[in-house]
Amino acid sequence: MEYIHLIEKTNSPFWAFAIHDGHQIDDALLPYLVADDDTRLREEDPQTGTLAELPFNRFISATSRFQLDLNRIRKDAVYLRPEQAWGISVWDEDLPTDLVNTLYETHDKMYKQIDALIQDTIQQYGYFVIYDIHSYNAKRNDQFEEIDTEKNPEINLGTAHNNPKWHELIKSFITSVRKQEVGLPAVDIRENVKFNGGYLAKYITDHYGAYGCVLSIEFRKDFMDEWTGQLYPEKLQSYKQLLLHTTDMLNEYFANEERK
């Protein structure tokens, strides 16, 4: 059973991950899948792979989180119960145990691969930063619901798992995002309002937090209609430019650290 993903390396200590970008389900699992395409797409993070098109190393998942969710701990990485998946019944009750076990084994293998990628980056550069890019729904009731912007920031930055040594870098990232649109309202980016960062961030920072940090960047789905899937390309491009702009901040931060 395949977990389809792209790993693209470049000469950089920085990574962009989009582990919920994908929609594909392995053929071996399709006979047991009961969640429909539209329902799955709404809870996936389409276009986050586009947002991850940065001058970084990249890890982009084409496989759906509904097959295997790398942002969940192993025992919750397969949505066997509705409460694991926003009340959605994902799999037929006859889903074979051997397929489930294969998925759990794939989770182990993917994290071994992630280990190797981060270790190689640390060995080469001595540090790393990961942009862990996601999106989230803010209209849970219906398509025409008015967004509660107090509870749903435009960008939720999950930082709770990071080593405190990265506080200044995180602060610099937030400042960079807020200041870049001259003449327009500052981007509403806040820390840990909706999400603190998932298992991917926790795992990496637990194991390698002395060497780098994970910024779990959750975009409110303002770049699309979260109910119909209609894309708003200009808004998506503005978010991509926003992330591109922050790369100067990263380079300056680590250049200053080296001079200390």
UniProtKB/TrEMBL annotation:
InterPro entries according to UniProt: N-FG_amidohydro
Any single Pfam family the record assigns to this protein: FGase
Protein name listed in UniProt: N-formylglutamate amidohydrolase
Highest taxon listed in the record's lineage: Bacteria
